[in-house]
Amino acid sequence: MSNYNRRRFLKAGGALLAAGTLPISLVELAFGKDRKQNFTFAYVSDSHITHVRGKQFVRNWDRGLIRAVAETNLLDPKPDFIFYGGDIAQLGKPEEIDHGLEILSGLHGDVHYVMGEHDYYLDLGEHWRKRLGPDHYSFNHKGVHFVVLNSILTFDDWMYDKWSSGEERMGQMARLDNPQGSPFMVGEQQRAWLKKDLDAVSKDTPVVVFSHSPLQKIYQGWNFWTDDAEQVQALLKPFDKVTVLYGHVHQIQYNQIDNISFHAAMATAWPWPYPSSYRQQAAHVPKLTVDMNRADPFFERDATGWQFINLDTGNVDVSYVLPDNSNRVVAWSDAAGHPVDTRYQAEADRIPPQTHY
Amino acid sequence: MIRKLSLVCVLAGFTTGAIAAPLGLPPVPIPADNPQSAEKISLGDRLFNDTRFSADGKVSCATCHDPDKAFTDNLQVSKGFRGQTGTRNAPTVINSAYMKTTFWDGREPDLEGQSKQPPINPVEGGLPDHAPILAVIRKDPGYVQSFQAVFSVPASGITMDHVAKAIASFERTIVAGDSPFDRYYYGGDTTALSEAELRGLQVFVGQGRCVSCHRIEQTQALFTDNRFHNIGVGFGKIRGKEQETAAQFLQSKREGANVDIAVLTRENVSELGRFAVTDNVTEVGAFKTPTLRNIDKTAPYMHDGSLGTLEDVVDFYNNGGRVKDSDPVSGFLSGGIRPLDLTAEQKSDLVAFMQALTSPGLDQLARTGESNHE
Predict the structure, then answer these.
(1) If DSSP codes are grouped into helix, strand and coil, which group holds residue B167?
(2) What ipTM is given for this predicted complex?
(3) Is the dihedral of CA A59, A60, A65, A71 positive or negative?
(4) pLDDT tens, position by position, B59-110
(5) In this predicted model, what pLDDT tens digit does every residue of B216-247 receive, in sequence order?
(6) What gap in Å lies between CA A245 and CA A256, rounded to an integer?
(7) Which one, of A148, A94, A83, lies nearest residue A119 by Cα?
(8) How many folded domains does chain A comprise?
(9) Rounded to 5°, angle at Cα A124 from A119 and A125
(10) Distance separating alpha carbons of residues B140 and B142, to the nearest angstrom
(11) How far is CA A356 from CA A278, A352, A353, in A?
(12) By C-alpha distance, which of B334, B103, B367, B353 is closest to B204?
């Protein structure tokens, strides 16, 4: 797509957003002439399907995923594919993964999956891989190189030796601010694979990397963190345009480190507060990020959501679809050289967070 | 011409420079570009009741917003000219002065914008455009005189904006509070609610979770949040067809289709709710929270009038947005709508509470209207 068309899309999208709406009906208009090389995809994440007993699952998390599926299916034009950003399950149980995949089977289109720690630490990903295949892989689509990593691994002794059962291990990894916890990492083996994979890709090819945890260091207490993030970033450094899309944090985050743009996904299950408000030690919420307003607890879907992504220039523009809240678009800005929130970037336009609880 | 107690009451307020609000309601918001005046209100009243503004000369605003029926028609969906039916239940005009948007899907921001639509909708007034309305008005010496007095315009200068402003001014006088609930909650009268009604209030603000959308504030209660929610009503009609219906509607909207006509003449499109206005996928099947004031008098209920009684409504919510608890749940259902697990007594208490939201002046208002209708 020409820059002209892309700007027109952003402009139209921005205008619509000002009225609190979503530019879905305009995406098609914007795609113009070289339509075959332009595409969108949808990005759903963090459903945390929770098994209660028998055939009973926590209704609220079911409803969040069901709603994301229903809304994604209305995208017009249809996305080329859908990414699922990890944490289908809450405690890694096969029942949870199976129930989540049954709901996700309602999506009209191919789905690519990323491994989350809640899918992994009960059986070290065995059931997930049985249903979905390898946890790291790459593919090309319309001139873009997509890479999927399993970024939620940790030290071998923590994974294999420390716990008496898979349930205990999963329970420990599910805790926030856990002194017994352990940081996420991509690990040496996958990094070697990634290096080899990227060696075969020309450096002007746009690269989009999917991980569950952020491939940047934000807040270790909640594992908004990948321990070997710098080493992964170094492998991505030679490319002109790189975007990392991650789940796990259940909130809007975006950042730019050198050539790499970072964007987080909303959860369909529940929102996390920004770690800066719960800080116990140094937190590095990306300084570019404009925080969301605080959720209204009555509206169970408030501050949850999903997103669709426009990749027409090789940079990523993320449209956040937020039930019971204002939709947001975080788009690449040529002028700024990093992603910007198209509506709330200016201080004066921001929704101040609640200060009483 | 009908006279209304609330009208008299609000007019009395004018002379002191403030608009008196009944117990339990905030002051009526008046737009800066459409100030109230006694002549304008009276003109609006006449226009509201004029049946000549329709294709068969039989449909006025009051046809569907009948003062004798708490400004509704008590029909499932409204009947337009030659008995044609649309897709939506007529909401009451009472307290519409407080609405942040009008119509069930909020497609017009204010009362001024609202009243222009029905006369030219093919299943309501049935007129091709506004010209016939202005022609009638310009030929009616009484109207010409009033428009001159109110807007300082000659017959040839009368526009639909003037008509809409006068009607909106009249509608802003149709306010009613002072219900038993108001007297209990804001008036300090501890005897105003019965035991059952008091228990119903507890369900309303507690386990029933009603108050989250039908709001009660510290000094007043509009019983609405002025927001849009998918509560599951009408899901049966487009179940499995959401994608196709939305895609077809977006296509026809791009080709210039009129939203007002589309939502009232195409049953599936009607069920898209707020989405038809905003194109926002998070608002599929979402409709505006109506006020619950005088709800006992405005049956049947919901945007499509599909629930006949307050008991049906309570059952519907108790089943998590379903008529029967075995019905499927819409994928677009709003968070907050979920099975409530209310007992039979809690349900009947809740109905009793809603019946205590009827304004006493309203009954009198309707009787006054009746005797003057002959």
Answers:
(1) helix
(2) 0.87
(3) positive
(4) 999 999 999 999 999 999 999 999 999 999 999 999 999 999 999 999 999 9
(5) 999 999 999 999 999 999 998 999 999 999 99
(6) 12
(7) A94
(8) 1
(9) 50
(10) 5
(11) 15, 12, 9
(12) B353
The structural domain count of chain B equals: 3
Range of the domain at B314: 180-231+289-358
Q: Report whether B11 contacts B41 (CB < 8 A).
A: yes
Any CB–CB contact under 8 A between A62 and chain B? no
Q: Give the CATH number of the domain where residue A328 resides.
A: 3.60.21.10
Taking alpha carbons only, the member of B288, B316, B276 closest to residue B230 is B288
CB contact under 8 A, B335 and A69: no
State whether A299 and B335 contact (CB < 8 Å). Answer: yes
User: How many other C-beta atoms can be found within 10 angstroms of the C-beta atom of residue B324?
Assistant: 8
Place of tokens 């569907």: B64
Closest partner CB to B335 (pick from A24, A321, A323) = A323
The pTM is what?
0.89
Distance from C-alpha of B239 to C-alpha of B235, rounded to nearest angstrom: 6
Backbone angles phi, psi at A124, to 5 degrees: 55, 40
Does residue A8 lie in a domain region? Answer: no
**Residue A190 to residue A298: CA distance in whole angstroms:** 42
| Two structure tokens written together for A200 | 């075969």
Q: What backbone torsions phi and psi does residue B272 show, to the nearest 5 degrees?
A: -70, -20
Same domain, B122 and B55: yes
Instruction: Quickly state the pLDDT bin for A278 (edges 50, 70, 90).
Output: low
- The answer to whether the Cβ–Cβ distance between A75 and B281 falls below 8 Å is yes
Q: Rounded CA gap, A8 and B129, in Å?
A: 35
